[in-house]
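hi! just following up on the protien thing from before. the input was this:
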Amino acid sequence: MTAIGSVLLLPLGPLLIPHFYLIFLLVYFTCFLYTQINHLFKFWITVSKIKKTIRNWNMSERAHLANDKSSASAASSGPASPSPTPTRERYPNIVDDERFSEMEATLKLYEDSHFVHAFIVPNYAEPEALLRDTIKRLANHRNAQTNYVVILAMEASEFGHAQKAENLANYFKDSFLHFIVTVHPSDIPGEARGKGSNVAYAARTGCAELIQNGVDRRRVILTVSDSDSSIPELYVKEVEKSFTQAEDPYFLLFAPPIFFSRNCFEVPAAVRMTDITWSAMVMSNLSNSRGIAFPCSTYSLSMVLAERVGFWDTDSDAVGEDMHMMLKCFFKTDGLARCAPIFVPINLTNVQTNGYLSNINARFVQAKRHYNGVADVAYTLRNAFGLRSLAVDANGVVLHTPILNKKSSMYASPTFWIDKLIVCVKVLEAHMIPATSGWLMFAAVPLMQFILFPPHPMVAIVNPADNPILTSDFYATLWNIVKIITVFLPLPLFGTLAIYEHLHRVVDRELYRKSKSETRTWRNVFDYISLPIAAWAFLTIPSTIACIKRLYKTNDQYIVAEKFFDEDERH
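and the predicted 3d structure came back as:
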C-alpha cells in the first residue's frame, strides 16, 4: 500500500490535498536527508575499520614471514632457538604501544584454530567452473585440511546436479577435513523454493553428519556462502577473533561487507554502479552500536545458535534468507541475538550474461528477486508486537491457533521494546524507502511544478485563483523550502561514492593483490552517468513490483540470475 500510495500521490496530491501534500513532502524529504547523512557517517566508520583490519593483517603476515626467515636462518647457522617474537627493534615503524600491543594480540589470535568451519554453499544451475573457483579459494587457506568442512548444497530439481557434485567432490577430496554433498528434495510440503530452504536442508543434514563424526557442536561455526563468494582467509580469522573475544558468542551472527570486484569491468556500467551502491548500503548498515544490523549474502553463526532457533525458515516469508535469519534469531532469543560486524569484504560476482541488454535484463530479474524480501516487513511486525505466525498446511489452511509468548510479549524489558522498535524501523527503511524514494525524489517536485505552475495557460489544470501556493504565504514558503531540500538529497550519496572510490582501490591492491590496471581508475568516474538508469531499473521499479505483488501473490517463482564464468580467464 505504501508503494501504491507513493505513485498515486504524484498526480493526486497537488490536486486533492495540496496543503497536506506539501507538509508530507517536507517531512519525508527532511527525514530522508537525515537518514542519508547518518548512513554516510556510518559508511565512513565502516570503511575506516575495513582499512585498519586489512592493514593489521598485512602487518601480521609480514611479521610471520620475517619470523619464518629468521628461524630458518638461525637453524642453518647454529643450534635451534625458539621462534622470535615481534619486537620494536625488529619493527621500528611500529612506534606506539597501543599499535604494537594490538599487533601482538592479533598474532596470538591468528594462530592455529580449534574451531571447525562449515561452509554451506547453496547453488542452483550455477556454472561448475564458478563453484570450483569459489571452493578453491577456501582450499588455499592454511587450515583448510584440518579445520574446514564444505557442505555443497545441491538442488534435486537441477538437471545434472549429481554429476556436478561428483566432479567437485572428486576434485576437492583431499582439500578439506570433510566434503559433504546434500541434495535438497523439491517436494517437501510447505516449503518455498529458494536459497533459504536449500540452506536449511543442508545445515540440518550437514550438522547431523558432523555430530555423527564426533565433532563438538560448540566448536562448529557455520558460514553461509553464495556460489560466487570469494572468502579471504582474513575473514575466517576475524570471525574466530570476534567469537573468542565476545561475552556470549553463541548469540552472535557475524556479518561482513560485500564487495564486487571479480568481474566488475565485464558488465554494463549501470550494473556495476547498482552493485557498488548495494555494497555501500550494506557497509553503512554494519556500523551500529547496538548490534542491530543485517547480514547480506555471506555470514556466519555458531551451530549452537542455529539449533537453538530451529535452523532456517523455509516458507515464502523467508525468501530474503540472510535478513530473515537475523530477524528470526533476534525474536527467537527475545532480543539477545546480535549482529557482529566483520570488517573484511567478501568479493562477489556481478550478474553477467552475453550482450548488453541481456545483462541489463538479468540484473533486473535479480533485483526483483532481492526485493521479494519485503515479506520480512510482515514477519517483523507480527513478531515485534507479540504475535506468532500461524501454522498452515500446503493449501494455506490454519492448523492451530498459536499461543502468545507472555514472557516475551508482555513482560519484556524496556530495552527489548526499544530494540524491537529499532528493528522495525530498519526493516521498514530497507524495503519502504526503495519503493517510495525513486518516485517522490525524481517526480514529486517537477510534477507539482507542472500542475500548479504550467509552462503555458493551455495546459493549466488548476485555476491561478485556486492555486494553494499562490494564495498562501505560508505554503509558498514551504514550497520553496521543499525545492531547496531536494537539491541536497543526492549529496550524501555522492559523498558515499567518493569514499567508496578510495576503498575499492585499497581492497583490490592490499587484500586481493591486484595491480593498478586491474582496479578502478579515474576513467570510472564516467560510470556515474548511469546512476539514474540504475536507480530506476534496479531499485525503484523492482521494489515497487515486489511490494504490490504481496497484495495478491505471496509465493513467487524463484529465478536464479545468470552468471557467466570463464574459468580460463580467472586467477
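The first strand starts at residue 116 and ends at 122.
The chain is about 55% helix and 10% strand.
cheers
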